[in-house]
Design a protein that fits this description.
It is a single chain. By secondary structure, the chain is an alpha/beta fold. It is 37% helix and 17% strand. It has 9 helices and 8 strands. Strands 1-2-3-4-5-6-7-8 form an 8-stranded parallel barrel, surrounded by 6 helices. Helix 5 links the parallel strand 5 and strand 6. The relative contact order is 0.17.
Protein backbone atom coordinates (compact mmCIF):
# COMPACT_ATOMS: atom_id res chain seq x y z
CA UNK A 1 0.00 0.00 0.00
CA UNK A 2 3.00 2.28 0.57
CA UNK A 3 5.46 0.51 -1.69
CA UNK A 4 6.46 3.66 -3.58
CA UNK A 5 6.75 7.28 -2.40
CA UNK A 6 3.27 8.42 -1.42
CA UNK A 7 1.67 11.83 -1.82
CA UNK A 8 -1.03 11.43 0.83
CA UNK A 9 -3.74 14.13 0.70
CA UNK A 10 -5.88 14.83 3.77
CA UNK A 11 -9.06 16.86 3.39
CA UNK A 12 -12.43 17.66 4.91
CA UNK A 13 -15.10 20.01 3.67
CA UNK A 14 -13.66 22.84 5.82
CA UNK A 15 -10.31 22.60 4.00
CA UNK A 16 -11.82 23.25 0.58
CA UNK A 17 -12.21 26.99 1.12
CA UNK A 18 -14.16 28.48 -1.77
CA UNK A 19 -13.93 25.29 -3.84
CA UNK A 20 -16.52 22.55 -3.94
CA UNK A 21 -14.94 19.74 -1.85
CA UNK A 22 -15.50 16.91 -4.32
CA UNK A 23 -14.16 19.09 -7.15
CA UNK A 24 -11.02 19.76 -5.08
CA UNK A 25 -10.60 16.05 -4.40
CA UNK A 26 -10.92 15.26 -8.09
CA UNK A 27 -8.34 17.94 -8.93
CA UNK A 28 -5.96 16.28 -6.48
CA UNK A 29 -6.66 12.83 -7.89
CA UNK A 30 -6.10 14.05 -11.42
CA UNK A 31 -2.91 15.74 -10.23
CA UNK A 32 -1.48 12.48 -8.98
CA UNK A 33 -2.05 12.00 -5.25
CA UNK A 34 -1.50 8.36 -4.32
CA UNK A 35 -3.58 8.17 -1.10
CA UNK A 36 -6.52 10.11 0.34
CA UNK A 37 -7.75 10.55 3.90
CA UNK A 38 -11.15 12.04 4.69
CA UNK A 39 -10.59 14.17 7.78
CA UNK A 40 -13.98 15.74 8.47
CA UNK A 41 -13.48 17.81 11.62
CA UNK A 42 -14.04 21.27 13.01
CA UNK A 43 -16.87 23.79 12.98
CA UNK A 44 -19.56 22.96 10.45
CA UNK A 45 -18.30 19.41 9.89
CA UNK A 46 -20.73 17.03 8.26
CA UNK A 47 -22.42 14.46 10.49
CA UNK A 48 -24.92 11.63 10.19
CA UNK A 49 -26.31 10.72 6.78
CA UNK A 50 -24.71 13.75 5.13
CA UNK A 51 -21.27 12.56 6.25
CA UNK A 52 -21.90 9.00 5.08
CA UNK A 53 -23.09 10.27 1.69
CA UNK A 54 -20.07 12.56 1.29
CA UNK A 55 -17.65 9.81 2.34
CA UNK A 56 -19.23 7.41 -0.16
CA UNK A 57 -18.87 10.02 -2.92
CA UNK A 58 -15.21 10.51 -1.97
CA UNK A 59 -14.70 6.75 -2.11
CA UNK A 60 -16.34 6.59 -5.54
CA UNK A 61 -13.96 9.23 -6.88
CA UNK A 62 -10.95 7.50 -5.33
CA UNK A 63 -12.00 4.20 -6.93
CA UNK A 64 -12.09 5.87 -10.37
CA UNK A 65 -8.43 6.80 -9.96
CA UNK A 66 -7.27 3.64 -8.17
CA UNK A 67 -6.41 5.56 -4.98
CA UNK A 68 -7.04 4.05 -1.51
CA UNK A 69 -9.27 6.02 0.85
CA UNK A 70 -8.74 6.28 4.61
CA UNK A 71 -11.11 7.68 7.23
CA UNK A 72 -9.81 9.75 10.11
CA UNK A 73 -10.91 8.77 13.60
CA UNK A 74 -14.32 7.21 12.76
CA UNK A 75 -14.45 3.42 12.85
CA UNK A 76 -18.18 3.25 12.15
CA UNK A 77 -17.87 5.41 9.04
CA UNK A 78 -14.83 3.49 7.79
CA UNK A 79 -16.71 0.21 8.13
CA UNK A 80 -19.95 1.59 6.68
CA UNK A 81 -18.37 2.72 3.41
CA UNK A 82 -15.83 -0.15 3.42
CA UNK A 83 -12.85 2.18 3.32
CA UNK A 84 -9.37 0.87 2.66
CA UNK A 85 -8.17 2.06 6.03
CA UNK A 86 -8.63 4.21 9.11
CA UNK A 87 -6.23 6.60 10.80
CA UNK A 88 -6.29 7.43 14.52
CA UNK A 89 -4.33 9.76 16.76
CA UNK A 90 -2.90 9.14 20.22
CA UNK A 91 -5.89 10.79 21.88
CA UNK A 92 -8.63 9.34 19.66
CA UNK A 93 -9.23 5.74 20.69
CA UNK A 94 -7.40 2.59 21.74
CA UNK A 95 -5.40 1.14 18.88
CA UNK A 96 -6.00 -2.47 19.92
CA UNK A 97 -9.76 -1.93 20.15
CA UNK A 98 -9.81 -0.34 16.71
CA UNK A 99 -7.96 -3.30 15.22
CA UNK A 100 -10.54 -5.67 16.74
CA UNK A 101 -13.42 -3.61 15.34
CA UNK A 102 -12.08 -3.27 11.80
CA UNK A 103 -10.74 -6.81 11.46
CA UNK A 104 -7.47 -7.95 9.96
CA UNK A 105 -7.90 -6.76 6.38
CA UNK A 106 -8.42 -3.00 6.81
CA UNK A 107 -5.29 -0.84 7.05
CA UNK A 108 -4.72 0.97 10.34
CA UNK A 109 -2.63 4.13 10.58
CA UNK A 110 -1.64 5.54 13.95
CA UNK A 111 -0.11 8.94 14.74
CA UNK A 112 2.99 8.57 16.92
CA UNK A 113 5.67 10.91 18.21
CA UNK A 114 8.38 8.59 19.54
CA UNK A 115 9.90 5.12 19.29
CA UNK A 116 7.92 4.12 22.39
CA UNK A 117 4.60 5.15 20.83
CA UNK A 118 5.62 3.48 17.56
CA UNK A 119 6.31 0.22 19.39
CA UNK A 120 2.93 0.37 21.14
CA UNK A 121 1.09 1.08 17.88
CA UNK A 122 2.80 -1.74 16.01
CA UNK A 123 2.12 -4.15 18.87
CA UNK A 124 -1.57 -3.26 18.56
CA UNK A 125 -1.63 -3.98 14.83
CA UNK A 126 -0.84 -0.68 13.10
CA UNK A 127 -0.17 -0.99 9.37
CA UNK A 128 1.69 2.31 9.09
CA UNK A 129 2.72 5.22 11.29
CA UNK A 130 2.06 8.94 10.86
CA UNK A 131 4.73 11.17 12.40
CA UNK A 132 4.61 14.90 13.02
CA UNK A 133 4.22 17.73 13.08
CA UNK A 134 7.52 17.79 11.23
CA UNK A 135 7.23 21.55 10.81
CA UNK A 136 4.82 24.13 12.23
CA UNK A 137 1.22 23.63 11.11
CA UNK A 138 -1.90 25.81 11.20
CA UNK A 139 -4.29 22.95 10.42
CA UNK A 140 -4.40 21.53 13.96
CA UNK A 141 -4.91 24.00 16.80
CA UNK A 142 -3.80 21.38 19.36
CA UNK A 143 -0.74 20.18 17.44
CA UNK A 144 2.41 19.30 19.35
CA UNK A 145 5.55 21.43 18.86
CA UNK A 146 7.38 20.76 15.56
CA UNK A 147 9.76 17.81 15.91
CA UNK A 148 11.69 18.07 12.65
CA UNK A 149 12.88 14.76 11.23
CA UNK A 150 14.84 13.56 14.27
CA UNK A 151 12.09 11.27 15.63
CA UNK A 152 11.32 9.93 12.15
CA UNK A 153 14.96 8.89 11.79
CA UNK A 154 14.90 7.18 15.22
CA UNK A 155 11.73 5.24 14.38
CA UNK A 156 13.01 4.24 10.92
CA UNK A 157 16.29 3.06 12.48
CA UNK A 158 14.33 0.88 14.91
CA UNK A 159 11.71 -0.25 12.37
CA UNK A 160 13.25 0.07 8.89
CA UNK A 161 10.50 -1.90 7.13
CA UNK A 162 7.50 -0.10 8.66
CA UNK A 163 5.92 2.59 6.46
CA UNK A 164 6.21 6.02 8.10
CA UNK A 165 4.31 9.04 6.76
CA UNK A 166 5.56 12.53 7.64
CA UNK A 167 2.96 15.22 8.30
CA UNK A 168 2.78 18.81 9.47
CA UNK A 169 3.74 21.96 7.62
CA UNK A 170 5.29 20.07 4.70
CA UNK A 171 5.63 22.13 1.53
CA UNK A 172 7.54 21.54 -1.73
CA UNK A 173 10.42 23.67 -0.44
CA UNK A 174 11.04 21.60 2.70
CA UNK A 175 9.82 18.18 1.60
CA UNK A 176 13.17 16.81 0.44
CA UNK A 177 14.59 16.61 3.95
CA UNK A 178 11.52 14.64 5.03
CA UNK A 179 11.99 12.14 2.19
CA UNK A 180 15.67 11.83 3.10
CA UNK A 181 14.70 10.88 6.66
CA UNK A 182 13.35 7.63 5.19
CA UNK A 183 9.61 8.19 5.02
CA UNK A 184 7.38 6.20 2.69
CA UNK A 185 5.28 9.26 2.04
CA UNK A 186 4.30 12.77 3.02
CA UNK A 187 0.84 13.79 4.18
CA UNK A 188 -0.38 17.21 3.12
CA UNK A 189 -3.51 19.24 3.83
CA UNK A 190 -3.35 22.99 3.29
CA UNK A 191 -0.38 23.07 0.90
CA UNK A 192 -2.48 21.17 -1.64
CA UNK A 193 -5.99 22.30 -0.64
CA UNK A 194 -4.99 25.96 -0.73
CA UNK A 195 -2.97 25.83 -3.93
CA UNK A 196 -4.14 27.91 -6.88
CA UNK A 197 -3.05 25.15 -9.26
CA UNK A 198 -3.46 21.84 -7.43
CA UNK A 199 -1.87 19.67 -10.13
CA UNK A 200 1.14 21.96 -10.36
CA UNK A 201 1.59 21.86 -6.58
CA UNK A 202 1.44 18.07 -6.53
CA UNK A 203 4.05 17.98 -9.29
CA UNK A 204 6.30 20.17 -7.11
CA UNK A 205 5.97 17.62 -4.32
CA UNK A 206 6.89 14.85 -6.75
CA UNK A 207 9.91 16.82 -7.86
CA UNK A 208 11.06 16.98 -4.22
CA UNK A 209 11.50 13.20 -4.09
CA UNK A 210 15.14 12.15 -4.36
CA UNK A 211 15.27 10.00 -7.49
CA UNK A 212 11.63 10.94 -8.19
CA UNK A 213 9.71 7.67 -8.26
CA UNK A 214 6.04 7.91 -7.36
CA UNK A 215 3.35 5.23 -7.49
Amino acid sequence: MFGNPAIYFLMGTANAGTKEPLALLEEALQGGITHFQLREKGRGALTGDALVEFAAECKGLCREYGVPIFINDDVELACTIEADGIHIGQDDMDCGQVRKQIGASMALGVSVHSVKEANEALTCGATYLGMGPVFGTRTKSDAKPPAGVAEIIKVKTQYPHVPVIGIGGIEPGNAEMVWRAGVSGIAVISSIAGAQDVAEQIERFKQSIPGRRVG
